[in-house]
Specification:
Blueprint (H helix, E strand, L loop, with lengths): L1 E7 L3 H13 L3 E4 L2 E5 L2 H14 L5 E7 L1 H5 L19
Antiparallel strand pairs: 1-3, 1-4, 2-3
Length: 91
């Protein structure tokens, strides 16, 4: 299932840690604090648990599952965002 993850961190160091975790799970950066990718339900659960452990008091991470039908209807304006599955997961 496709996922959109948005983050808002008070400190750059923790933001970088969270971004590294999102990228480790195969999500790719599509805007400054917005990530998208395809995860299984188990991976999404693991990601949510791990993110909960490393977030600090004023940090916020929002993970939204999106069905394939809805994701296929996405529209972009301005700069083209390529949604190819060109990243590899590292385990």
């Amino acid at each position: 299932m496709y996922m959109i993850a948005s983050l808002d961190c008070r400190f750059k160091t923790n933001q970088k840690n969270i971004e590294n975790v999102l990228q480790h799970y195969g999500l790719r950066k599509i805007q400054s604090s917005l990530y998208a990718g395809d995860l299984s339900n188990g991976e999404r659960k693991d990601l949510s648990e791990y993110i909960s452990e490393i977030t600090r008091e004023n940090d916020s991470v929002l993970i939204i599952p999106i069905c394939e039908n809805c994701y296929a209807k996405k529209q972009t304006a301005g700069r083209e965002i390529k949604f190819k599955n060109d990243l590899y997961r590292v385990y």
